[in-house]
């Protein structure tokens, strides 16, 4: 292939990939555009893509008629608590499993991994009754119970400890008289900053986008997460597409911005899910 | 002495996490198994053991069978649409790594995977809308006739497959990209010297070399396809606006049996069927991987 032919092919591939990328983003862009349309324009045929007379009415009425901000707050605090719990449990368990090779510890690790195969949907009904017996339905603590631990998080930290923390380092600290807890806190944790950040982003988005679990645990309007609130809002008392789009845009835009900022951590975390084999 | 002290620390450090696991994972899993062979109507306190009666009833239950078939169609449909697309796309993105748009390619494909399910489904609900949606507008302008995408049972299934694939694609592309980056460059160098074209290298080198990744991504996609719920819930409301009725999926059927029909044992049996499907798929993945390892 000549140089020019090669350049032409590369150019065609670039054009194709840019078009495909725009196609992937199109549904989200159209949703945001719809949020600014007036009711008349919303039902116009053929549909428009860029609003002719952008208006903020949809946002105003959505914020006035629904507890949208409360739902976002519920999701946010649930996701943050879940992230903290998962980072704590995964870091200590992953470290112990990697550096304390006792047989009983390996058995526990095998158990953790075995539960990872079982989808959440399989055991969520008995878990619901546990939450109910504790009187925690419609609370953030109740939601949190489903998202306290993550098998994959433990696995991720274990792999990183094995790969990046040499035994000699820990041995040296022990000879210097450091306690085990001190070693974990002052030596191990700082060295795991990268993978812990990746895990935190992964855990946050997992809780933020959860649906089936909040759907059964939060049944009161004030306890909804944003996902449940939007889903029931869409099927409940209104089918006003403009308002729905405005509400959706309020959720979508911050999470896309957060993703773009945290992209590197996120990609690292997700990419490592493929390293299992 | 030292060893014992270290062992004590390990056990104490692992204990809280293990206790949480036992409480919110292992316990409920065992409970699901236990409930699946019992009859419990949610109100009564006795839960008589009824053997496999729940399972026998399930396979004569037309609602459950519909849900099972729909879910299987969605799962396999998403896999068939996502895996080949993701592989080609990742190959092209990897090939153009040095392009100035490389960051955009990765980000634009991945964003649908991270945005919240419900707002994303909302966007597609408008696209597929029979009266107002741009999809029908496009079809009409091309001279076709408008379709009721979300109300015709077959088209609604198709719409859900499109939505789920749109979301699953980013993950698959990302995993494939990791795979492409780990491939030995020397093999491609040799192929190029032998005069192989890019397409030939993809066909005869990349596809076989990436087989373990293809297996892994396929199983992950299938398993998440079998757990589909939110997408069907939002997209496929029936004409009265009841969510998820147009396309019945397993998780929806399970939740309705537990919380609407108060048949928790029966729902647990459904959960066990879902678990069995997942175990079979995962087992098949490992079996295929091992087979490949032996043939080397």
From TrEMBL, chain A:
Extent of the signal sequence: none
Localisation per UniProt entry: Cell membrane
Keyword Transmembrane belongs to the record: yes
Main location class: membrane
Protein name as it appears in the record: Multiple sugar transport system permease protein
InterPro entries, per the entry: MetI-like, MetI-like_sf
Similarity comment: family membership: Belongs to the binding-protein-dependent transport system permease family.
Membrane topology type: Multi-pass membrane protein
GO BP terms, alphabetized: transmembrane transport
Keyword entries, A-Z: Cell membrane, Membrane, Sugar transport, Transmembrane, Transmembrane helix, Transport
Membrane spanning stretches: 12-36, 71-98, 105-129, 141-161, 182-205, 244-262
GO cellular component: plasma membrane
Domain ABC transmembrane type-1 as annotated: residue spans: 72-262
